[in-house]
Specification:
This protein is of the alpha/beta class and about 280 residues long. It has eight helices and 16 strands. The chain has one domain: Carbon-nitrogen hydrolase (Nitrilase/N-carbamoyl-D-aminoacid amidohydrolase, 4-Layer Sandwich), CATH 3.60.110. Helices cover about 30% and strands about 30% of the residues. InterPro entries: C-N_Hydrolase, C-N_Hydrolase_sf, Nit1/2_C-N_Hydrolase.
Length: about 280
């Protein structure tokens, strides 16, 4: 297939659907002008509110008018879109889903992943974040075949659970890991890049991590630093300004994935008999 240009986006989403759409539209136009086939947008790309109730109030089904606008944007720009962290209507009035939606260049939803690990944490000196108050967890591990490789869909806090990424690589045959996020500043400073590079090295996959950046409201700020990492753990793309609304462009190449996996054949060295989750009890 050869190298393919992709773009990773960075933005400061607000509690305004129209403003956020305009920002995403501009980033998509930039990516198209750069010759990219895929644009990855961060978690909460369409809306980032200051309360659970605010986010619940704007949640829509995937066949609603807001997602339709993003599908039309993909079709207009002939661009695949990774829409990380959409507020999808949930299983009951008190909960939504945090959904990562992959849209093709023809404007069709190819796959949807509902975030399975919810961020419930109290960091000293930072706002208390309890995602489960207004979000229901998903239950499926999701990959999708695309023209540029086999893509795994995750969201933000999933990054801290390496067993998920082992499953995506060794059971689901992923080539590319999409990790849209809205990392807090303290956790981002401490762990963002090192965890992303670790996931790339462990799985021998490309990692594309689109990030929210800057001050969203009086309660919430995000770390930024959108990044692309190759299967050897090398950073091959990073937004020049870690907090600006922008894209960075990188090339991904499945030949690189194949070469690294051939030279370091960890898949054949894994002891499935000892620790693989597919092993049945008593084996």
């Amino acid at each position: 297939m050869g190298p393919v240009k992709i773009a990773v986006g960075q933005m400061t989403a607000k509690n305004d659907l129209l403003t956020n759409y305009s920002t995403c539209e501009r980033l998509c136009q930039q990516a198209a002008e750069a010759g990219c086939k895929l644009l990855c947008l961060p978690e909460c790309f369409s809306f980032l509110g200051s309360s659970d109730q605010e986010s619940l109030s704007i949640a829509e089904p995937l066949d609603g008018p807001l997602m339709e606008k993003y599908k039309q944007l993909a079709q207009t720009q002939q661009m695949w879109l990774s829409l990380g962290g959409f507020q999808e209507k949930g299983p009951d009035p008190e909960h939504r889903y945090n959904s990562h939606v992959l849209v093709s260049a023809s404007g069709e939803i190819v796959s949807t992943y509902r975030k399975i690990h919810l961020f419930d944490i109290d960091i000293p000196g930072a706002p208390v974040l309890k995602e489960s108050r207004g979000t229901a967890p998903g239950s499926d591990v999701v990959v999708a075949d695309t023209p540029f490789g086999r893509v795994a869909l995750t969201v933000c806090y999933d990054l801290r659970f390496p067993e998920l990424f082992q499953e995506l690589r060794f059971s689901k045959s992923a080539d590319i890991l999409l990790i849209p996020a809205a990392f807090t500043v303290p956790t981002g400073e401490a762990h963002w890049e090192v965890l992303l590079r670790a996931r790339a090295i462990e799985t021998q996959c490309y990692v594309i991590a689109a990030a929210q950046a800057g001050q969203h409201n009086e309660k919430r700020a995000s770390y930024g630093h959108s990044i692309v990492i190759d299967p050897w753990g090398k950073v091959i793309g990073k937004c020049e300004d870690p907090l600006a609304t922008d894209i960075c462009v990188a090339e991904i190449d499945l030949d690189t994935v194949s070469s690294i996996r051939t030279r370091m054949p960890i898949a054949t060295h894994r002891r499935y008999d000892l620790y693989d989750s597919r092993r049945s009890d008593g084996e």
